Amino acid sequence: MGCGASQPAAEQPAAQRSPARDTHEAQIMISYRVAETGAESLGGDGSALRIKLYLESLGYSVFMDRGTAAVDRQLQQWAERPEQRIIGCQVFIALCSPGYGGSTWTVLEYQLAHSVEKTIIPVWHSGQYPPAELQIYMTELQRVPSGSQPLVEMDFKTVMQELTIMISYRVAETGAESLGGDGMALRIKLYLVSLGYSVFLAEVKLWGGQAKRALIGCQLVIALCSPG
After folding, report:
1. Which of 4, 103, 113, 126: disulfide with 92, CB 3.0–4.6 Å?
2. Are 128 and 102 in contact (CB under 8 A)?
3. Percent of the chain whose pLDDT exceeds 90
4. Would you tell me how many other CB atoms lie within 10 Å of the CB of residue 19?
5. DSSP structure class, residue 9
6. pLDDT digits (tens, 9 = 90+) for 118-172
7. CATH architecture of the domain with range 14-217
8. DSSP class of 141
9. Element (H, E) at 102
10. Residue 85 CB contacts under 8 Å (≥ 6 apart), including other chains
11. What is the average pLDDT score of the chain?
12. Can you tell me the distance from the alpha carbon of 65 to that of 6, in angstroms, rounded to the nearest whole number?
């Protein structure tokens, strides 16, 4: 995923740096530069984890690493886990900080997501946008936030609401045909989310435990009555 002239710095890939705790494919994968948007203990500002927790609070399943594994892995080892995670996800979020795309690992992750035609949503965290190394890929993509200010200069919740709407819209665009439906449930979710509600869809690719917790914890259940 690169078109810049500088040599990418070595960094461990997001999906390799720390194995996921579950064995399921996540709906959303967050690709990020650990030293900038990872855990504060690793030099980042914690943005990647904040985004993960926000999306999980809405019922999405999200994969990101914790950036705790050793950084001296061989390049060929990268392909063991990220390929499964990226191919298995529905939405690939590229958290664009100043160094995103300037490392071998973020480039590989983005290129794989692009090559398998995943829904890619760039989140402009800070720095130049689009990143020089990824400009050829990102120029035509709608980013979040859509205005002239990056995430770090805006209210976090406001940006997350825009991101959630974008995710719902993109999944509704691409998911209805593959699921055999007309996308109406996702359109309803999109509208309610735009009003500030948090909405869980029981029929999308979420697993039993999450669906059960969402049902117990919600205030209102909407039954969308179709012929079946």
Report:
1. 113
2. no
3. 40
4. 12
5. B
6. 999 999 999 999 999 999 999 889 999 999 999 999 999 999 999 998 887 776 6
7. 3-Layer(aba) Sandwich (3.40)
8. S
9. none
10. 15, 20, 25, 26, 29, 63
11. 77
12. 26
